[in-house]
Amino acid sequence: MQLQHLKQTARPAAFYSDTYDWFRRKRWAHMEKYQYLEPLYDGDPVQGAVLWRKWEKISGPTNMLKKQQGIIQNYCDEMAALSAPRGTIVDLGCGTAALRNTAPLIESYKTIKRYNAVDLNAAYAGSCKKDIESLFPGINGLAVCHDFMTPSMPLSHRDDIAVLFMGGTIGNFEARPETPDAIDLMARQITHFAQNFPRGTIAFIGLEATQDRQLLYQDYIHPAHQEFEIAMMHGIKREVLFDQPGFDPDAWRYAMAWFPKSYQFCHIAQALEDQSFYMFDEKIEIRTGDNFVIDNSFKFPVEAMQEAVQKAGKEYLKAFSDEDGRMVIHAIRL
Ligand SMILES: C[S@@+](CC[C@H](N)C(=O)[O-])C[C@H]1O[C@@H](n2cnc3c(N)ncnc32)[C@H](O)[C@@H]1O
Questions:
Q1: Which atom of ligand 1 lies at the shortest distance from residue 147's CA?
Q2: Residue 15: its pLDDT value, please?
């Protein structure tokens, strides 16, 4: 409890203002970066990072992360050959997947000397660094706790890089439900992360391509995934609204929406009770049934991604896909 108390003396400003904007509907979704919070004490209900790992482990064989792993296993030699020789791998939003996603590519390149694990969750970046260094004793790892969409990423090396951006993370961005601007917004995502790398760097981007509503619902309705998404309300309670009894993190349920014309899948928090609380001295009133999109997961077919890459002024090289076209790893030259 001591840690919790310390935490409550300092509210993280960005989390506070993003939450305020979200509840005031000035910010459309993209609370994703606050979802992977670690518990701070025994019995802490904030379990986002733990629940993500649980979902990764127990999700079924059609899950996009499993499909992505299969693509890497099948095509790692070809992927490496596209960009060889490379001395550095930068793993954007590495999560806990370095052994699954990154290790096979390191084996295929045979020339990797440096590994940079980038994640806003410092524990994830640290554990990926450790995993790769233990498996490949000749490789120097670096854990980088940085928002990959902002410039000046403190990397160990600026040249000779292959970028991995896996797990559909590039498809988590802010947009109104049913946005008409999905392709332009994806182009902006590409422009933003690319600013950290020299022109000509090759990036591999894992993104779900399926447009099959039933398949998506079936996957995301998994209890472990629902639990992961809705756990963010506990993160808000612990970090942001700890002094507001009118906010109840348990009075929310997970819901979903799919907007195929926008390639947009929405993960939603729906209020189960009326709630009212104060932020910036303003009363926020939530009504039973109100929906707030926690995050968007955009799913782009290959042609839409090609258009976004072109709009960003980059070169689309190749699509590596699983046998059902569910997941695709896009190779692009930045
Ligand atoms: C969907 S998981 C993907 C994990 C892994 N790459 C995979 O393929 O399984 C997204 C990861 O990106 C991290 N992340 C999300 N937004 C980020 C940001 N803006 N900057 C850095 N890391 C971010 C999260 O903490 C999380 O570990």
A1: 20
A2: 95
Write down the mean pLDDT value for the chain: 94
Q: Which of 120, 127, 228 to mutate to test the pocket of ligand 1 (most atoms within 8 A of CB)?
A: 120
Q: How far is the CA of 61 from the centre of ligand 1 (A)?
A: 21
Query: Minimal CA–CA distance to 117: which of 163, 80, 75, 151?
Result: 163
289: buried, middle or exposed (CB in 10 Å: 19+, 13-18, 0-12)?
Answer: exposed
Asked whether the predicted pLDDT for residue 317 surpasses 90, the reply is: yes
Centroid of chain to Cα 144 = 16
Residue 16 CA: distances (Å) to CA of 219, 242, 268: 31, 11, 19
CB 235 within 8 A of CB 35: yes
Length of the chain: 334
Phi, psi at 327, each rounded to 5°: -125, 145
pLDDT tens across 216-249, in order?
999 899 998 999 999 999 999 999 999 999 999 9
Q: With beta carbons less than 8 A apart as the criterion, state whether 98 and 131 touch.
A: yes
Q: Is the bond preceding 249 in cis, omega lying within 30 degrees of 0? A: no
Task: Domains for the chain: give ranges and CATH numbers.
Answer: 2-59+215-297 (no CATH), 64-210+300-333 (3.40.50.150)
pTM (2 d.p.): 0.92
C-beta 249 within 6 A of ligand 1 = no
Label residue 9 by pLDDT band (50, 70, 90). Answer: low
Structure tokens at 205: 């981007």
Helical spans, DSSP H, in 84-222: 103-109, 122-135, 182-194, 213-220
CA dihedral 300, 304, 308, 313 (to 10 degrees): 130
* Residue located via tokens 């700890």: 242
Distance CA 218, CA 196 (A): 36
Q: Residue 124: CB within 6 Å of ligand 1? A: yes
To test ligand 1's pocket by mutation, which of 32, 71, 152, 169 has the most ligand atoms within 8 angstroms of CB? 169
